[in-house]
């Protein structure tokens, strides 16, 4: 008789731990978002509950979504924009240098061909 009540109590305990454990696990992305002061905290929280009904398929994406935002750098695109601007500036500088070199080469070729013409004229 005692073992029956013990087994029933253990069964209820395990069921409650699993139930609350699943809820706690699905709130991890929301807790991350709240800690990072994410601008989409509420959406992540609601999507965490929705993921319970979608058999946890969107939960990893919620984790990623919550961890992308950081308060000190936002989404992290500012640095990318700055790097692209720097690369664009360097590319423009290289294009200018190449055009200057092309002008020098054409000038030197012009000098060379005029020197060749003078040699031909002198030989005749």
Automatic annotation (TrEMBL):
Regions annotated as coiled coil: 77-111
Keywords: Coiled coil, Membrane, Transmembrane, Transmembrane helix
Transmembrane segments: 6-25, 46-66
Protein name per Swiss-Prot or TrEMBL: Inner membrane protein YiaW
Protein source organism: Vibrio hippocampi
């Amino acid at each position: 008789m005692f073992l029956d009540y013990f087994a029933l109590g253990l069964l209820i305990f395990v069921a409650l731990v699993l139930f609350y454990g699943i809820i706690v696990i699905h709130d991890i992305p929301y807790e991350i978002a709240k800690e990072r002061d994410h601008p989409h905290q509420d959406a992540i929280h609601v999507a965490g509950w929705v993921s319970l009904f979608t058999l946890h398929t969107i939960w990893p994406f919620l984790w990623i979504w919550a961890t992308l935002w950081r308060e000190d750098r936002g989404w992290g695109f500012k640095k990318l924009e700055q790097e692209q601007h720097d690369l664009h500036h360097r590319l423009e500088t290289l294009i200018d240098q190449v055009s200057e070199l092309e002008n020098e080469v054409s000038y030197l070729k012009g000098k060379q061909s005029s020197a060749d013409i003078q040699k031909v004229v002198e030989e005749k």
